[in-house]
Please model this.
Amino acid sequence: MTILNPEYIFGCPQCKVLFLSDTDNIVSPCPVCGFAVVSKVDFKYQTPNIELILPDTSSPQSFETLISEFIQPTKFKPTRLNCESLLRNMKKIYFPKWLLDVSAQGNWNATVGFDYQVESAKESYQQGQWISQKVNETRTNWEHRTGLLENTYNNILADAQSKDNWITSIIKHSNFQKSEVYSSTLKPLVLIIPDITPDQAILNAASNLKKVMSTECQKACKAQHIKSFDIKNNYTNHNLSLLIFPFFHTWYQDDEGNPHSIWINPQTKTIAGDRHASTKSASKYAMILFAVSLTSLLLTVLSGFLSAAIPPLIIAAFLLLMVTIITAGVGFYCLIYPSQWNKQNQKYWFKKSAD
Ligand SMILES: [Zn+2]
Model:
């Protein structure tokens, strides 16, 4: 069932991902790569049938603690890197997977394993005598089997999007068994358009289908194990539809105005994204500390001179010297921290999409 209005298609010039929206108010920046500008594009797209959806009733507010704990380790946060701003910018986006229904026939061969029990004994020498203990051991007998398989398979999953970034890292643990039949009453909806073609999806689904067939043949043999499964099959009656499942995207601007993205999988409560440390904010602290350090240095020198006349001032000079060294050290740490931290949080997806 397809309800999306094909009039509203948006594209990202950076990662080339297209979005289908039932409103003309799409999120910006790009919910896939985080690039600043997403705009309407003139592109005709026939939406595939959406068959299943992974349901989710989460509200952005339900992620307040998750976000708070995620951003907490970042020192010198940009002004807009805060819970309130991130919750306000949060939007639910749907990610696609292809679902393949297919009839398959073919001759198969495999090596299957049957477990059996063997009773043996373990001899040990204790307190001057040999003691025998019974040991039950499981062994596997491997046999070669062949057969003919003819069956219809529904909802074999295959990737619909080829982008490899932090979204894929958070959504890969989703449990698609909890999917439900899609209802057109679901609104609003922003859906990422598949960039893997139906023909490619059928090829990609073949490996998942082979696993399902392998399990079936193992059951037919009443075996406990299977290996070297091979089938020469023909596929007929292909039918492709979509399973869609949600993730939440939010973003904030750093002090230079550049956007940074954060993604949440509502089912697994997994969060990933860019926790940016602000060079501007850190520099402000560093300048204050250097001013304190400089003042302390001057007082150290002054106390040093005066200690010739007033000996106890040598203690004050020593303490002031410590203050000078510590404040200067912390000041340098403030200057170095943002670049070190941001390097650790480097956006590898951004580099990939720029290729
Ligand atoms: Zn993008």
